[in-house]
Fold this sequence. Notes:
B: 6-stranded mixed beta sheet, 4-stranded antiparallel beta sheet, 10 strands
Amino acid sequence: RKEVEQDPGPFNVPEGATVAFNCTYSNSASQSFFWYRQDCRKEPKLLMSVYSSGNEDGRFTAQLNRASQYISLLIRDSKLSDSATYLCVVRKAAGNKLTFGGGTRVLVKP
Amino acid sequence: GAGVSQSPSNKVTEKGKDVELRCDPISGHTALYWYRQSLGQGLEFLIYFQGNSAPDKSGLPSDRFSAERTGGSVSTLTIQRTQQEDSAVYLCASSEAAGAGYEQYFGPGTRLTVT
């Protein structure tokens, strides 16, 4: 079983709609959680960190459920420019390397 | 300011040859990471450098892979006797320091193709 698992998608989303997807992680020692965004043939870029209380950044909302070991990302009022692969990333407390999920592909269409 | 840079951007090599990939981290960043992304796979951690500490090599897939970081700045990832399964995008990242509070900034990657 992979340490971080994501639905690969694609999620086909009408422009203006809301889309949400989850990521599960298997290592209970995971301490820090992030969503990265990766455009086609580009490097990953940090979208947002995920905090225990949940957090929002504009149209993006991230939630963490430690008991069930999953994190989620919700995108409201989807824009065409939101089309990308969203990577779920975890880091253990004692380490510095990031462990990436395989990514969830989102396609926003007019 | 300048971000993480990597060279070459693309490299095609024949099976069995050695290759060297270079990473220039953001100036002043003490932590440097190498990852690789194979087709259809997620990013996979390879190695991590922090200051003068011994590197964390736990992600290197075989002894054909090695990396060094000279002078605490530029890093070179070397793959000896390349195999077709080494074909991937090799990504370098740097952060201001080690620790959960420091964002890792990625370079554009080197796309390696082993024929």
